[in-house]
Design goal:
It is a single chain. This protein has a single domain (about 5-295), classed as 4-Layer Sandwich (Metallo-beta-lactamase, Chain A). The chain is about 20% helix and about 30% strand. It has helices at about 35, 45-50, 95-100, 115-120, 140, 155-160, 235-240, 250-265, 280-285, and strands at about 5-10, 20-30, 60-70, 70-75, 105, 130, 150-155, 175-180, 185, 190-195, 200-205, 215-220, 225-230, 270-275.
């Protein structure tokens, strides 16, 4: 049976409090093989992948819930099962509609959506204090319909640029709060601390989109759990510095990955990207980023 919920409890940065977090597997998706392994990411590679008949491997969609002494924080919202319904993408322009309907595959049942996952751990959506979106792509925003009473934090740059975002698919009456990243965290020049204890922080990791962010949870003994969104799809791709065709800026994405690897020289980082099934074993075994494994 596929494991759909990960549970982890850690000691907070202050060495006293406990922080518990959960990973929810909310469906999976696949893109064309040539788009997944494009040597030169970008729009041209994306369009060229249209003629490819082969889809890449299924990628899980992980969403993270952090139960912290200062509140309950949700990172991303996963897919909506409505992507499987005829006409769901009808509001979009022809090219975008064609891409989602013909160039991607989705697999998700209604009972795998965010609200059902929250029920399984006994938490109601109105108990969530803040939702933080790493970016605005549909596999990260599909569960917003279950969070109509919850503030949804989006990096101001991401909200302005909306690379690959489709607001026509967003539910009405959501509470979007654009956030300025006016602080810094280590070598990341743009950051925003989400807790008074400064142990949960949004950091700018652009490339996949211009406003993409990752979320760092700082634990005890120099440990960081880094919820990486789509900065890379997997940890191996972080080491290899490889990206899908769908990224916005190849140079920025490479720099974001280099910054993460540089941070791993100072902190013990467990890397948790959205689309990596390795997250399960990585958390179980406390497997940290290994600098000697990457191609520096």
């Amino acid at each position: 049976m596929v494991q759909r919920i990960i549970t982890k409890e850690i000691i907070a940065k202050n060495g006293k409090d406990k922080v518990k977090f959960y990973g929810f597997k909310i469906g999976q998706l696949a893109i064309k093989e040539s788009a997944m392994h494009a040597p030169k990411p970008g729009l041209i590679s994306t369009v060229l992948s249209f003629k490819d008949k082969t889809f890449g491997e299924w990628l899980p969609v992980w969403v993270w819930l952090i139960v912290h002494p200062e509140g309950i924080f949700l990172i991303d919202t996963g897919l909506s099962s409505e992507v499987k319904q005829a006409g769901y993408f009808k509001p979009l322009d022809f090219i975008s509609r064609y891409y989602f309907e013909k160039q991607m595959k989705f697999e998700i049942k209604r009972e795998e959506e965010l609200d059902y996952m929250l029920q399984k751990i006994g938490i109601a959506s109105n108990q969530i204090d803040k939702t933080i979106l790493t970016h605005l792509h549909i596999d990260h925003t599909g569960g917003m319909k279950h969070l109509l009473q919850v503030p949804i934090l989006v990096y101001e740059k991401e909200w302005k640029t909306q690379d690959g975002a489709f607001p026509k698919l967003f539910p009405q009456n959501i509470h979007i709060q654009p956030v300025k990243l006016e602080e810094s965290f280590e070598l990341f020049e743009h950051a925003h601390y989400l807790t008074k204890g400064k142990d949960l922080v949004m950091i700018s990791t652009p490339g996949h989109t211009r406003g993409h962010v990752s979320i760092a949870l700082l634990g005890n003994k120099n440990k960081i759990y880094l919820f990486g969104g789509d900065v890379t799809y997997t940890q191996n791709r972080l080491y290899d510095n490889t990206f899908s065709a769908t990224i916005k800026d190849h140079k920025d994405n490479k720099k974001s990955c280099e910054n993460i690897l540089a941070l791993a020289k100072k902190f013990n980082i467990i890397f948790l990207p959205t689309h990596d099934m390795g997250n399960i074993d990585r958390l179980k075994n406390e497997e940290e980023i290994k600098i000697d494994n990457n191609k520096e």
